[in-house]
Amino acid sequence: MNKSIASNKPKSKYLFLGIALAVVFIDQLTKFLAVQYLNPYEPVPVLFDVLHFTLAFNSKAAFSIGAASTWVFTIISALATLALLWWGPRSRTKAWLILGGFALGGVAGNLVDRLVRSPGFPNGHVVDFIQIPFNFPVFNVADMAISISATLIAIRVIRGDRIGGKHD
C-alpha cells in the first residue's frame, strides 16, 4: 500500500523541516570546525590521496562560477529557500519530503554564509573545505546536500515522477 501523506500534513512538515534543519546544523558545525582548525588553502590529508580538508572562502556560485556576483547568488538562494519552504510541505510522498528537506537544508546552509560571513551582508563568502582528487572544486556539506538532492530529483523526473507527487 503506497499511501499518500497529504492527510498527515503536520507530521510531513516536521519531517521536511527536521531534515532541512539537520542539514543546516551539520553544515554550519562542520564549517565552524573547518574555520577553527584549518589554515586557508593548506590541504590536510584525511584519507590518503582520496580526501583532503582544504579551507577556502568562496565568493562565487557552485564550481566557482560568477566572480564578483555574490549578491546575485544571495538573492537567488533566498528565492530558492522561499520556494522550497512553500513547495516542500505540499509534497505528497515521504520521498519527496526527504529530497525537499535536503535541498532546503543545502540552499539555506550556504545562504547563511552569504548573509553573515565576511566581508558581510549580502556578500559573505561560503566556507568550503572538502577536497577530492581530479581537480574537483572544494565544497562543503550544503553543496553535497544540494547536488545529491538535485541529482535524485532529476532522476525521478526523468523516470516520469511528478515533482512532489506520485508517479502518474
CA gyration radius, whole angstroms: 17 Å
Tell me, rounded to a whole number, the average pLDDT.
89
Class from helix and strand fractions = mainly alpha
- Biggest beta sheet summary: 3 strands, antiparallel
Terminal residue distance: 16 Å
In short:
The protein has helices at residues 9-37, 70-87, 94-116, 141-158; strands at 44-47, 51-58, 126-131. It is mainly alpha-helical.
Care to describe what's here?
By secondary structure, the chain is mainly alpha-helical. The chain has one domain (16-158). The protein has 4 helices and 3 strands, in the order H-E-E-H-H-E-H. The protein has helices at residues 9-37, 70-87, 94-116, 141-158, and strands at 44-47, 51-58, 126-131. A hairpin with a 3-residue loop joins strand 1 and strand 2 (51-58). Helix 2 (70-87) runs antiparallel to helix 3 and helix 3 (94-116) runs antiparallel to helix 4. The chain is globular and about 45 Å long.
Descriptors:
globular; three-stranded antiparallel sheet; mainly alpha; 168 residues; 3 strands
